[in-house]
Amino acid sequence: MTSLLPLQDKVALVTGGSRGIGAATALRLAREGADVAITYVRDKDAAEDVVRRVEALGRRGLALRADAADATEAPGAVGRTVDAFGRLDVLVNNAGAGLLGPLDTLSPADVDRLLHVNVRGTFLASQAAAARLGHGGRIITIGSCMTQRVPGPGGTLYATGKSALTGLTKALARELGDRGITANIVHPGPIDTDMNPADGPYAADQAALTAAGRFGTADEVASMVAYLAGAEAAYVTGAEFAVDGGHAA
Predict the structure, then answer these.
(1) Which residue numbers delimit the Ketoreductase domain (predicted)?
(2) What is the DSSP string of 15-61?
(3) Distance of alpha carbon 169 from its chain centroid, rounded?
């Protein structure tokens, strides 16, 4: 008898899936058996490369241009995924903006941009997904280790936005639990990506903040997302998971 993959015949949408944690997550979910749509804003070539790699795994892939800062595009990507694949089982809220700087340098426009992407976009995508998910659906959000420990100045706005996602996650778990839908949040620590490379100018200081003494990989975050997306995590909801090398220890 042939055993099915954990996410066989499921459909996932990964926002911000053209690179870094998002791309690693899209590919991991595809390896687990899911068809995967991803969103991107600027790098169409990178997004299409992820789709090709998803398809090389025998799954269907789809790249959607959608800016999480736009109040219509974030939820619209959910509908476009359902239109293309016929259903939605897993939403991974990965799209996000990063902005660090002294408190007195942050403008109202900075606040609006970050909160529109990191909070409003995630809320609206989750709201749209909740209307489409069936029993066993999953909403998984990528947070940040800075929600649990802010190691120095300059992170006020970023930590504010990411911390709001913890409240959103817990509330979604309560809202959707009676439908068999779970909501969880994953907090990555310093992760080796093109935006924050492990050999970058500030990497040694970041690694020193962790108990493991190193950067994590995007695949290590993706493995936690894949677990939460699967049937084995059906009784896990409203929870926070740190994949941070002990950054918060």
Answers:
(1) 10-194
(2) TT-SSHHHHHHHHHHHHTT-EEEEEESS-HHHHHHHHHHHHHTTS-E
(3) 12
pLDDT tens sequence for the chain (249 residues): 446 899 999 999 999 999 999 999 999 999 999 999 999 999 999 999 999 999 999 999 999 999 999 999 989 999 999 999 999 999 999 998 888 878 889 899 999 999 999 999 999 999 999 999 999 999 999 999 989 898 888 889 999 999 999 999 999 999 999 999 999 999 999 999 988 899 888 889 999 999 999 999 999 999 999 999 999 999 999 999 999 999 998
Fold designation for 11-243? Rossmann fold (3.40.50)
How far is residue 234's CA from residue 72's CA, in Å, rounded to a whole number? 30
Q: Which two tokens stand for residue 141?
A: 């959000």
Exactly one of 40, 158, 202, 227 is catalytic; which is it? 158
Q: Taking the domains of the chain in order of start, what are their residue ranges?
A: 11-243
Contact predicate 185/241, CB 8 Å: yes
Question: 158 catalytic, yes or no?
Answer: yes
pTM over 0.70: yes
